[in-house]
Amino acid sequence: MTLAQTVSVIIPTRNYGRFLKDALDSVFAQDWPEMTVIVVDDASEDDSPQVVQAYGNKLQYVRHENRGGTAKARNTGLNMVKEGVVCFLDSDDVWLPGALQALMKTLAFSPDADGACARMVNVPHDAMAWAGQNPGELTGKAVQGWQAGAVAFRWTCFERVGGFDETLPNAEFVEWISRARHVGLNFATTEELVVLRRVHGSNSVLTKPTLAPGYLQMIQQHLQRKRAASTAFAKD
Predict the structure, then answer these.
(1) Which residues contact residue 87 at a Cβ distance below 8 angstroms, ignoring those fewer than 6 apart?
(2) Does residue 144 lie within any of the structural domains?
(3) Could you tell me which residue, 198 or 231, shows the higher pLDDT?
(4) I want to staple 172 with a disulfide (CB 3.0 to 4.6 A). Which of 7, 45, 60, 164 is the partner?
(5) How many CA atoms lie within 13 A of 139 on its CB side?
(6) Does residue 2 sit within a domain?
(7) How confident is the model at residue 5 (pLDDT cuts 50, 70, 90)?
(8) In the 3-class helix/strand/coil scheme, how is the chain assigned residue by residue?
(9) Number of domains the chain is built from
(10) Residue 54, in any domain of the structure
């Protein structure tokens, strides 16, 4: 079992300065010797730059002067990484202590896996502090987390699948997982709860129904890939 790998943690953010410190603190609390933290600011108009500045040279900070969307922010971070393992954490969520160790151990025990997926749980904003102190109380509500924060990827995944679809207003992470499955990537799983997904008044997928077309587009693309694969199989 080999754990000694460089890990890059990419955190896209836009106007989440009020949550960003919690996310960053949870990353820097991980026990990992070789970790690069990249914050990609998608043209925030709040105090996000000042929050990041407090961490000095502990992280790398990139700012989009014009809003490009979460997928573009993720891709900007990816373009700064060329090796090792890649993780994403949304700036309003937090990793639990030992999250990165759990993901990396899962990868190490599954050398043929392209990535590792752990579990996540949705937590109301007002309960985040309690949840961080009592994660054991939440394990029964945790689900396999095919979302940012709960998955670790070997860099080679992105060489095979490409980056995130910047035409999608949301659902870009789930859409990427769909493409990854389609080309045959496999993910090892663990029952460990690693991420608290903050539910608050600004969650785009929960409060902005106008973004629903992003999910519809993602589902349509997934179905098209399956139909194409079925057609090719039938011809063979």
Answers:
(1) 7, 8, 9, 10, 100, 103, 149, 151, 152, 153
(2) yes
(3) 198
(4) 164
(5) 8
(6) no
(7) confident
(8) CCCCCCEEEEEEECCCHHHHHHHHHHHHCCCCCCEEEEEEEECCCCCHHHHHHCCHHHCEEEEECCCCCHHHHHHHHHCCCCCCEEEECCCCCEECCCHHHHHHHHHHHCCCCCEEEEEEEEEEHHHHHHHHHCHHHHHHHCEECCCCCCEEEECHHHHHHCCCCCCCCCCHHHHHHHHHHHCCCCEEEEEEEEEEEEECCCCHHHHCHHHHHHHHHHHHHHHHHHHHHHHHHHHC
(9) 1
(10) yes
Whole-angstrom Cα distance, residue 230 to residue 91?
39
Contact 148, 89 (CB under 8 A): yes
Return the closest-CA partner of residue 107 out of 57, 170, 176, 154: 154
Residues above pLDDT 70, as percent of the chain: 83
What is the tens place of the pLDDT at every residue in 70-111? 999 999 999 999 999 999 999 999 999 999 999 999 999 999
Is 169 within the bounds of a domain? yes
**Six-digit token string for 62:** 């990139």
Q: Structural domain of residue 214, as residue ranges?
A: 7-235
The predicted pLDDT at position 177 comes to 96
